[in-house]
Amino acid sequence: MALKHNIHQPTALITGGSNGIGSAIAYKLLKNRMNVAVADVLPPSSNDVFFNKCDVTKAKEIDDLFEELTQNFSLPDILVLNAGRGIREKLTEGDPSKWEAILNTNLMGSLRCIRAFVPAMLKKKRGHVIFISSVAANQPHPYGGIYSASKTALEVVAETLRLETLPHIKISIIAPGITDTSFFDNEISGDISINDLGPDPLSPQDIAEDVWYILNKPGHAVINKLITRPANQSF
Q: Which of 133, 148, 150, 172 is labelled catalytic?
């Protein structure tokens, strides 16, 4: 898609940015005068963002995304690692091939994007990487071992990246609680729905506001982790 970027505005790249939390983040940043690029397997609903079809589990598609942004848009100043999938299976009964698919998306997908885009940030000595994690990180629970493990590992990656890129790159983690998206409908395995988890979930816009808050922390201060839950969520 041919879409001009404004050289006076920062550019944000959002993986999994065509729906749910990713889409809400994209439009929040777009409304606040940023150049926004979305990488996803399906196109977004608006033509105001630069879209590149990209499956983060495929290394070549990450390489193609890098080339497309380099040639036709701009490399990101802000990288939001949002692409991910859920799964609910018992460790003694589940399908290891599905577990591998979850880890390939939730963990390796983010690692591929880090390897592709953060070196350019380091070269400029500025940038911000935001990891969309989950309150499930570091929280073992029945049927949630694989998803929890993927998000726990992602947070370890985020902290390692912070240490390896000091002082130039800002690193932040957002860990949402129950959020009203199609996440549960699109789980690779599981039979739970958003309606089973109680009333008043977060909205995707709640998490988009968190991103905007983090990006606007003044001066040299960085919010390294932000947890947002519905007021009635105990987990």
A: 133
At 1, the pLDDT band (50, 70, 90 cuts) reads very low
Q: Looking at 147, 150, 170, 172, which residue is catalytic?
A: 147
pLDDT at residue 2, as a whole number: 56
| 147 catalytic residue (yes or no) | yes
Architecture of domain 11-228: 3-Layer(aba) Sandwich (3.40)
Domain layout of the chain by residue ranges: 11-228
Tell me, yes or no, if 151 is annotated catalytic. Answer: yes
Predicted TM-score (pTM) of this structure: 0.95
Mean pLDDT along residues 48-54: 95
Question: Three-state SS across the chain?
Answer: CCCCCCCCCCEEEEECCCCHHHHHHHHHHHHCCCEEEEEECCCCCCCCCEEEECCCCCHHHHHHHHHHHHHHCCCCCEEEECCCCCCCCCCCCCCHHHHHHHHHHHHHHHHHHHHHHHHHHHHHCCEEEEEECCCCCCCCCCCCHHHHHHHHHHHHHHHHHHHHHCCCEEEEEEEECCECCCCCCCCCCCCCCHHHHCCCCECHHHHHHHHHHHHCCCCCCCCCEEEECCCCCCC
